[in-house]
């Protein structure tokens, strides 16, 4: 069966442990996602095209806006919490503070069950918090979050092909986003951030350039 | 019907079940096996191998940190135990994981003797598991070479 890679979700996975990167990569592939793995928060930002420093108007900046840096389309970022240097929480904050990327759903993973940590991440805008070891069943929770970004982009690009993963519920003309109910929703885990999410999604920048093809997994170490 | 294959498959199944029953493996190993398919037939073996490499490295560095009684780097030991606990948990290495839990407790109260005991135990457990899984993978290989398929084993 021919896999239409252009329509697959592309996930950026961040973890400093090689072992954990291998695990999450396989889990995501098994869930039909394209995966790029990096071993640190700063590499993740680099991959996204976000400069380390504040990207507000800097006359000395090499290029103009974040839009031109965004060469890859990422539908979700999944990151470990405990990492040296930039923690998953720090990365989450940086992404949510960025105009270009704040609409990308972020999921945090941790081997430690610390309620204060979990609520802090969710409050900062994380969509989910997964306790390690992450299971295949956990990843089914990701699809609805990724669908939102994809459909939004496709509603702004009528020429693009349909999403092959799930049947699209929006026709091109419709400006609003339809909420898709996830399969296994655990209500306790998800606070109602829908207002913030919708607002954030208005600012998703999409381009007409064709998306680069990633034939295989890219692993940056 | 190839009875050699059937026999091997039976052997494989019994052996795997016994590993669960004896507490070497837990449910997470089942999850790991789910991630393997025709496209990635060596996934479990690769991950497990990575895990054992980690064990060896971490045990060595923790051993060095614990070496001199007057100068123990408990922070380093704690970091090592944390990593080991995480990866053993992800792999389904139940006994190794359980030792790590005790190990962490000894580390938290800076009990060097306790840490040394746990270190020895973790070393023993991972090597034991390594042998067991090697036998399991050998059985798998024999099945494949005999033209059979690896059975799906349901653990209750």
Question: Briefly, what is this?
Answer:
The complex is a heterodimer of chains A (221) and B (156). Chain A is α/β, with parallel strands linked by helices and 221 residues long.
Features:
heterodimer, A: 221 residues, alpha/beta, six-stranded parallel β-sheet, 33% helix, globular, disordered C terminus, B: 156 residues, mainly alpha, Four Helix Bundle (Hemerythrin (Met), subunit A), 6 helices, 76% helix, phosphoprotein (chain B), AHP1-5/YPD1 (chain B), cytokinin signaling pathway (chain B)
Give a written overview of the molecule:
The complex is a heterodimer of chains A (221) and B (156). Chain A is built from eight helices and six strands. Mean pLDDT of chain A is 74; it is low at 53-58, 63-69, 160-166, 170-175 and 184-219. In chain A, helix 2 packs parallel to helix 4 (88-97). Chain A is globular. The relative contact order of chain A is 0.18. Chain A has helices at 18-30, 41-48, 66-69, 88-97, 115-123, 136-139, 142-156, 194-202; strands at 9-14, 33-38, 76-80, 106-110, 128-131, 218-219. Chain A has 221 residues and is α/β, with parallel strands linked by helices. Chain A is 33% helix and 13% strand. In chain A, strands 5-4-3-1-2-6 form a six-stranded parallel sheet, sandwiched between helices. The two termini of chain A are 32 Å apart. In chain A, helix 4 links the parallel strand 3 (76-80) and strand 4. Chain B contains six helices and no strands. Helix content of chain B is 76%, strand content 0%. In chain B, helix 3 packs antiparallel against helix 6 and helix 5 packs antiparallel against helix 6 (112-145). Chain B has a single domain (3-146), classed as Four Helix Bundle (Hemerythrin (Met), subunit A). Chain B has 156 residues and is mainly alpha-helical. Chain B has helices at 3-21, 27-34, 43-66, 74-91, 94-108, 112-145. At the A-B interface, helix 1 of A face helix 2, helix 3 and helix 4 of B.
């Amino acid at each position: 069966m021919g896999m239409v890679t252009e329509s697959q979700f592309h996930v950026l996975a961040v973890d400093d442990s090689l072992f954990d990167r291998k695990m999450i990569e396989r889990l995501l592939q098994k869930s039909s996602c394209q995966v790029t793995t990096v071993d640190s928060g700063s590499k993740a930002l680099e991959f996204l095209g976000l400069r380390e420093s504040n990207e507000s108007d800097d006359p000395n900046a090499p290029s103009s806006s974040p839009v031109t840096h965004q060469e890859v389309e990422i539908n979700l970022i999944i990151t470990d919490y405990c990492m040296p240097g930039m923690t998953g929480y720090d990365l989450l904050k940086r992404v949510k503070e960025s105009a270009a990327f704040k609409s990308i759903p972020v999921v945090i993973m941790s081997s430690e069950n610390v309620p204060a940590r979990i609520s802090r991440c969710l409050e900062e805008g994380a969509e989910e918090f997964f306790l390690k070891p992450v299971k295949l069943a956990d990843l089914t929770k990701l699809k609805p979050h990724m669908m939102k970004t994809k459909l939004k982009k496709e509603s702004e690009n009528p020429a693009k092909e349909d999403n092959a993963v799930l049947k699209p519920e929006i026709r091109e003309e419709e400006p609003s986003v339809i909420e898709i109910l996830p399969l296994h929703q655990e209500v306790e885990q998800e606070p109602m951030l829908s207002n913030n999410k919708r607002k954030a999604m208005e600012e998703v920048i999409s381009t007409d350039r064709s998306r680069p093809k990633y034939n295989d997994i890219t692993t940056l170490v | 019907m190839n009875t050699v294959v059937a026999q091997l498959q039976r052997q494989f199944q019994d052996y795997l079940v016994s590993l669960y029953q004896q507490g070497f493996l837990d449910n997470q190993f089942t999850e790991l096996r789910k991630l393997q398919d025709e496209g990635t037939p060596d996934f479990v073996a690769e991950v497990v191998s990575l895990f054992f490499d980690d064990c060896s490295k971490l045990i060595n560095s923790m051993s060095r940190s614990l070496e001199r009684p007057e100068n123990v780097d408990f922070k380093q030991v704690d970091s090592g135990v944390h990593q080991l606990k995480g990866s053993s948990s992800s792999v389904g290495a139940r006994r190794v994981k359980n030792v790590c839990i005790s190990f962490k407790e000894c580390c938290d109260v800076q009990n060097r003797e306790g840490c040394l005991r746990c270190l020895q135990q973790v070393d023993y457990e991972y090597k034991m598991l390594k042998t067991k899984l090697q036998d399991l993978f050998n059985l798998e290989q024999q099945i494949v070479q005999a033209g059979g398929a690896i059975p799906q084993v349901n653990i209750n």
